[in-house]
Design brief:
The protein is mainly alpha-helical. The relative contact order is 0.15. The mean pLDDT is 90.
């Protein structure tokens, strides 16, 4: 009985951590859109967008960690791990395209990533 209560509490805790990391990721992507606008209009926009890219990438890696923790010890579904890993691949492509200055792909991919992140947040 005590083991079942502990397992339920752990599953709830990891699920909450997963939800928080998805929300953090969604927020950082939204802030990237704002800093992209500043990139076009102000001299400090490039710095903000560059720092924001690092924070967004870190939030995405945290999302992968949270998905693995929700899956492995809690016995949850494997689907969030695949979603988080796919999102990390998209974020990696986004960083490479940003560094290479390919806005024709970088901007639509950013919009796609924001939409997918909002969808993932709504599903949790």
């Amino acid at each position: 009985m005590a083991t079942q209560v502990t397992a339920t509490a752990n599953a709830r805790r990891t699920s909450s951590f997963l939800r928080i990391t998805i929300a953090l990721q969604t927020l950082t992507i939204f802030l990237q859109a704002i800093s992209a606008g500043l990139l076009l209009t102000s001299p400090y926009g490039e710095t903000l967008h560059s720092v924001g890219a690092r924070v967004m990438y870190g939030a995405t890696m945290l999302y992968v960690l949270a998905a693995v923790l929700a899956w492995k010890p809690g016995g949850g579904a494997l689907r969030p791990v695949w979603h988080a890993t796919g999102f990390l691949a998209l974020a990696s492509a986004q960083v490479v395209l940003g560094i290479a200055h390919v806005p024709t792909v970088h901007l639509p991919l950013g919009v796609l990533m924001f939409g997918l992140s909002v969808l993932a947040l709504a599903r949790r």
